[in-house]
Amino acid sequence: DAEEDKEAVPALAPVLHFADQRGGLVADYRHGAGRIVVLSDPFVVANNGLSRADNLQLALNLLGGNPDALIAFDEYHQGRGATHNQLAAYFAGTPVLAACGQLALLALAVVWSRGRRFARPLPAPGVDRRSQLEFVASMAELQQRARSYDLAIENVYTRTRRALARYGGTDHNVARATIAERVAARSGLDQAQIEGLMRHCEDAINGQPLAAREALALVARLRELERTLGIRMRAREIKQAGAS
Fold first, then answer.
1. Does residue 157 sit in the same domain as residue 224?
2. N or C: which end of the chain has fewer CB within 10 A?
C-alpha cells in the first residue's frame, strides 16, 4: 500500500516534451494545485509565429483545451512594467533626440552670448521736462529784458552766413565781400546790397548801438534773403538749433 501511495504522488521534476542536442523546448512540472509549462522559445506563441507549422496547436494544447481558461500575460518581465515618455520612446534609437539636444545646447549658447554685456553700462538718459519752444521763449525773453539785440542778431546772422557761404560754394570764414560776390554771381542779386546787409549785421554784433526796431528790420532782411535764395533752414538744422 505504501508503494501504491508513493506512485500516486505526481513527480515534481520537470518533464521535457520536446528536446534535442541543444536543449529542451517545452517542459512542465507540478506546482501546488497547478501546473507550470516552460516554453524556451517565445516565437512559438508570438503573433508572427502562430501561423508557422503546428505552433497554434501547441499553444492551444498548452492552455489545456479549456476555452474558458483565464489567460494572463506577465508584461512586467518583458520590459513593459516601467512607464516611459511615449514621444521619446517613439524616437528612441533614431538621431532625432541627439539632434534636438544639440539644437538646445546651441540655443543656450546663443542666449548666453547675447545676454552678456558688451561694454560698461551707460547711465540712463536724463529727460528734459522743458520743450524746445519753452527754451526759445525763455532765451528770447531774457534777451529782450537785457536789450541784447546784438546777441539775437548774432544767432540769426551766424547761421545765415554759413548758408550763404554754402550757397556760393566757399568757406564761411572768408571775407564777407567774397561771400557776397559769389552769391551775387550765382543768384543775380545786387552784390552791394548783400554785402551791406552783412556789414550792418556784423557791426551790430561788434557793439554798434542798435534799437529793437532796427534789430527786427535786420532779421527780416536776413529772412527775406534766405527766402529769395531758397536757403531756408532745413528740418534737421531746426532740430539741431533747438537742441543747442
1. yes
2. N
Query: Can you give the pLDDT at residue 139?
Result: 56
Average pLDDT for 26-44: 84
Residue type at 48 in one-letter notation: N
Q: Measured between alpha carbons, how far apart are the two ends of the chain, in Å?
A: 129
> How many angstroms separate the CA atoms of 36 and 26, rounded?
11
Separation between Cα atoms, residue 223 and residue 23, nearest integer Å = 116
- Classify residue 99: in a domain, yes or no: no
Greater model confidence, 51 or 3? 51
Strands 34-39 and 23-31: antiparallel
Residues 152 and 222: their CA atoms lie apart, in Å, by 12
Instruction: Tell me how far apart the alpha carbons of residues 62 and 25 are, in angstroms, rounded to a whole number.
Output: 13
Cβ atoms within 10 Å of 180's Cβ, excluding its own: 23
> What are the cell numbers at 183?
552769391
Asked if residue 126 belongs to a domain, the reply is: no
Cα→Cα distances 31→10, 13, 14, Å: 10, 10, 10
Contact 18, 25 (CB under 8 A): yes
Q: Residue 60 CB: number of other CB atoms within 10 A?
A: 13
Number of domains into which the chain is organized: 2
